[in-house]
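Side project, low priority. Logging it here so it doesn't get lost.
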Amino acid sequence: MNSFVKPDTEQAVGFGPFAFYRQQRLVTRDGKPLALGGRALDILQLLVEHAGSYVSKQALIAQVWPDSVVEDINLRVHISALRRAFGDGRDGYQYILNDPRRGYCFAVPLVAPTCVEKHNLPARLSPVIGRDKVLGRLLTEVPRQGLTTVTGPGGAGKSTVALRVAELLLDHFDDGAWFVDLTAITDPYQLRARIACTLGLEPDALSQQLQPRQILLVLDGCEHLLDACRELALALRASAPGVSLLLSSREPLRLTDECVVHLPGLAVASPLEPEHQLLACPAVQLLIDRAGARQQGFKPSDRDLVAIAQICQRLDGLPLALELAAAQVGALGVAGVLEQLDYGLSLLSQGRRTAVPRHRSLEALLDWSFERLNVSEQTAFQRLAVFDRPFTVKAAIAVVSCPDLVAEQLPWLLSRLANQSLLMIEQCANGVRFRWLHTTRAYALEKLRRSGQWPLYHRRCVLQDAWTPVRSNPAPLRQGVQQGVGLH
């Protein structure tokens, strides 16, 4: 095979200018993905399966919300979203009919699309906020680079940014842009097979088949396949110069011609800033946007804005963490969400049900990183959580080294954790210091507490006079924070 097809050779269902890929849960208009939520796609699936016939409201609710009791209004909201996305009533098309007694009917004839798609990019469900600068850089670099890697901590939105770049560059590449999720691959030898399957090519001669192509390959979640990705990049550089690779990864491949773009959390604002500056802060904008998407008519008060700015600081401006926090605003209120962050990461556990497993909670995302560390890296990662402020290599050696983690290992281990975006590096007058993101430290502290070693290493840290110790907060603290699990 040498033609590009959709993954798994899935045949789309066409209606008007739209194509519906049911297995991928993707709807496109003229080849460009539409932003539709999971419930709306579930409803569309049922209506398309019964196209030309009415499906009762009760049947739709029973299928789409099998474990919940919901009102008709929930169904109408998502039907309205589908109609808006399709421009129902424009261009002579009326896609979804409604009969008060019989329910809803998908009324447009279904046909197989005549055009071949140039991409398999999944639809983004939300706008990209606060990333104009990095998008501008990537739009300049990716077309002229054979290899570009977006790095950053978990939850920074690397996949979202890479997908947005691919969308914007779709017309630049004659053979399209193709997204390949690598997170489910455990065997490095499966890398080429997964890419070949996505493109509809034979895996045994992938580089040769790609030689005449002008294509953008977006490889998502590469951190556990670095060696295989390096080999692929080198092979494509030699035999397929028209292929551009855009990777998302916790750490770069470290090849000489690799363009590395680091993606930090969104910019945060001090809660003391005036209202107009808080509202202009990207992290604040994102949290308000996500809360408003779940709670119609949500508008924060002045007091809420201050609490939202505090939440954004505590969550390091990480888009995933902010989205998970926003999901709780309807139930707890903004002040309640801020209060619950004192108890660690358990609040940030209810993401989109359509998200990949590692993006459904912040803890799952950090588990993904932690499980890929070796034993020494895991040990250092946990013990270093006693530092609640920037620390030096010398301080780390004095506090966490022991017979099973000797001093000579610490510089290398600190470097490895920083390369994997689990520790941040900052320059200071006396050299390099390391610091935690609040969210990552809360996760590491919980690991350390469960190991039973928190008192020992906390005490060692406090007793040091040559570096800044971790001091106990003299104010009364909740039990969770006293045990070291709060997001401080």
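Brief comment: The domain at 373-482 is CATH 1.10.10.10 (Arc Repressor Mutant, subunit A).
Revisit when time allows.
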